[in-house]
Amino acid sequence: MMALCEVYWDRHIPLPKLAPLQAKATVALVSLLCFINSYDGEFVFDDSEAIVNNKDLRPTTPLSNIWHNDFWGSNLSSNSSHKSYRPFTVLTFRLNYLLAGGLHPVGFHVLNIILHAVVSALMIDVFAILTGGLARDEKGRMLNCAPKTSLLASLLFATHPVHTESVAGVVGRADLLCALFFQLSFLAYCKAFNRGSGGDDRFSVQWVAVSLSLCAAAMLCKEQGITVLGVNAAFDVLLICNVNVYELSQRLLLRKNLHALSEILRTGLLARLALMGLGGVSMLYARWRIMGTGPPAFTEVDNPASFEENIFLRIVNYNYYYSLNAWLLLCPWWLCFDWSMGCVPLIKSATDWRMVWLLLLWCVLIGLISQALCSPDSQRRRTLTLGLVLLVVPFLPACNLFFRVGFVIAERVLYLSSTGYCLLFAYAVGHCCCRWSKYKKLLCASTSALLCLYVARCALRSQQWQSERSLFTSALAVCPLNAKVHYNVGKNLADSGNATGAIGYYREAVRLHPTYVHAMNNLGNILKERNELVEAEQLLSKAVSIQRDFAAAWMNLGIVQNSLREFEKAEQSYWNAIRFRKKYPDCYYNLGRLYADQNRHVDALNAWRNATMLKPEHSLAWNNMVILLDNTGNLAQAELIGREALRLLPHDPTIMFSLANVLGKLEKYKESERFFLRALQISPTSASCHGNLAVLYHRWGKLELAKRHYELSLKLDPEAPGTRDNYNMLRRKLDQLKQHTP
Predict the structure, then answer these.
(1) pLDDT digits (tens, 9 = 90+) for 510-563
(2) Domain annotation covers residue 107
(3) How far does Cα 453 stand from its chain's mean position?
């Protein structure tokens, strides 16, 4: 088992030769330079679901939930689960939450940046082994036979702009951690052949076991981690056993000189491959059982090519996706947070001009494969083969060949595959400098310019990832046909209060994708708020006709129908929403409002009670129960409900206000005053609270206090209903008292 090699092109690479620690520090610093301006970014895009809305991050949630839920906090057995099982990644999110004392994005972003720096620095060791093997000096210390090659490849990896999504987007933590354990698993496998100076050819089973354990850890960060086994196997065959794959296959086919095969078998290759195979199968079986033995359910919108009935066109479109991924590695200028919904139109015929990209991709790949297999230069064969392995093997889980994936293109999945591109690029630079030495200065300048361009592009792209508005807006120039981009820009505008701007983007999303039910639902909501009820009803009705189980659209349709006084239709819409989403407290709340409008008081109370049972912190439902019981004269029951609500929501000023009104009517003045004052401590500018406290004092006979709070209420809201009349009544009474005072 030998892996000594001559890396003759390395000395021609236009980079200084640095000591190992200096090289790693340089790569780490350059990676920080690329992405440091993302440290104070917001939670954007998928961060909302994976972090902001993920209850598994909260200290109040049992830690064991992490092992039963998916990456987004949904139970793995749920039909809506994406089956992405990444408990180690979620554990780091939870740690961030605990250390920061809440959802403060700075800590999340800083850890991502540090992880990328660590991964980039460790790439020097990985590339050094892949290009130079396990060469050692007379004392058994590992030599880096290609220090410049490994440094250049690591610098390319550290600065590649396609990594921005993984670093600047917090959910990219899964890719960063997966890459870290991927590297450690590979380096541990290399340790199995640490022979020292004695020349012992035996391998260490313990280190192979450690490598498998680290592979499992990588898989628990992201599913892609299992592909390290393929890289380890290729490394073993090509560098440890020094196999010429093409020559060996020829011998096997012709049945000549088979003694070479017996020599390879004596190295323990089969035993190592069997160990890795057994470990890989065990991990896949465990993953399959955890997933619930069923794949996630994706829609045509997520991955339209996988729903193409024509097998030829399906394969063509898959290959077109591969060519686009390759283009992102070669020219990472057009980057987008989402590539679905029309961003990449399907190829519908063999005459489509985009077929050229497929042919170009396969011409390049076939050329590289032929050199990797048939080149007379053994070093070139090994380097090209390992570069292709690193490029292709980590990409396999995203290629649609083994199972359907839920995306068209995802820049995050290229984080590991880019290592193969970086290795091939660094080799190409060294080879060109060696072959065309008179152009060495030009190649040196070009390589330096490319690295500087990468750094600048990373900094610009990181800036775009700082907020949802800049991220979504930047995508409009890249994917103007992507309905989801327009939807997200519209949603961001709506969330910031710009409803008029949001309407235009929602309409464009629906125009580009006429069955985009979420855009219809959000547009219908805005039109409802603007009292354009007829169009809102049409949009929401269309949304539920397209997707019958769209519970939120059914509820919103019920709200619109209630406003149009179509009470029977509204009630049916609410019950449809509840039928499709059993635990839907907001829908029960709105159903209660419908019943209250129809004076069906018992039904209203039951609906609101259901809302509070499903969501004990549902303040509006509690408050409405207290107000309804107050208005119908059930003061004792209103008091009980109000006190129950305050036990659950002790700092809610609206419930304090409603309960104080009830206690005032029950002539429990002292207690009523206490709740009014507590509510005013929380909301000191509440005109209605000052006004009702004044009424309490008025009844109680504390007229000067009543006068002061009437005046405060009128100062805050001069048009407060009834307050002016009560104030004038009090002033007349005070005047009368002054006249009768001797």
Answers:
(1) 999 999 999 999 999 999 999 999 999 999 999 999 999 999 999 999 999 999
(2) yes
(3) 27
The token duo for 33 is 């330079």
Q: Residue 223 pLDDT > 60, yes or no?
A: yes
Residue 256: per-residue pLDDT: 65
Question: How do the residues of the chain divide into helix, strand and coil, expressed in percent and rounded to 5?
Answer: 70, 0, 30
Residue that has been written with the tokens 């125009």 in this structure? 511
Residue of 396, 392, 322, 386 whose CA lies nearest to 360 = 322
Length of the chain: 742
Residue 49 is assigned to a structural domain of this protein: yes
pLDDT at 200: 44
Residue 551 in tokens: 């519970």
Tokens describing residue 283:
């991990």
| Contact present, 5 and 145 (Cβ < 8 Å) | yes
pLDDT digits (tens, 9 = 90+) for 29-61: 999 999 999 999 999 999 999 999 999 999 888
Q: Which residues of 652-667 are buried (b: 16+ CB within 10 A; e: fewer)?
A: bbbbbbbbbbbbbbee
Query: For residue 488, what are the contacts with CB-CB under 8 A and spacing of at least 6?
Result: 45, 338, 468, 472, 475
- pLDDT of residue 2 exceeding 50, the answer is no
Tokens matching residue 499: 């409803």
pLDDT at 1 over 50: no
- In the prediction, which pLDDT does 429 show? 87
CB of 218 closer than 8 Å to CB of 89: no
| Cα–Cα distance measured from residue 646 to residue 71, given in angstroms and rounded to the nearest whole number | 35
DSSP 340: -
Between 294 and 280, residue with greater pLDDT: 280
* pLDDT digit string, tens, across residues 140-164: 555 566 678 889 999 999 999 999 9
Give the number of C-alpha atoms closer than 13 A to the C-alpha of residue 562, restricted to the C-beta side: 21
396: in domain: yes
In tens, the pLDDT along 199-219 reads: 445 778 899 999 999 999 999
Domain span holding position 83:
24-457
Cα torsion 720, 722, 726, 728: sign? positive
Cβ proximity of 684 and 713 under 8 Å: no
* 727 domain residue, yes or no: no
267 — phi, psi (to 5°)? -75, -10
In this prediction, residue 463 has a pLDDT band, given cuts at 50, 70 and 90, of very high
Half-sphere exposure of 145 (CA within 13 A, CB side): 18
Structure tokens at 439: 């152009």
CA distance 383 to 433: 17
Residue 122 has pLDDT above 60, yes or no: yes
pTM: 0.84
Runs of H (alpha helix) within 36-100? 47, 87-100
DSSP string, 650-664: TT-HHHHHHHHHHHH
How many other C-beta atoms can be found within 10 angstroms of the C-beta atom of residue 352? 16
Contacts of 116 (CB under 8 A, 6+ apart): 31, 35, 158, 163, 166, 167, 176
Counting the structural domains of the chain, the total is 1
Provide the b/e sequence for 572-596 (b: ≥16 CB within 10 Å). Answer: ebbebbbebbeebbbbbbbbbbbbb
User: Which amino acid belongs to residue 560?
Assistant: V
Distance CA 129, CA 123 (A): 10
Q: Which of 580, 694, 578, 5 is nearest to 592 (CA)?
A: 578
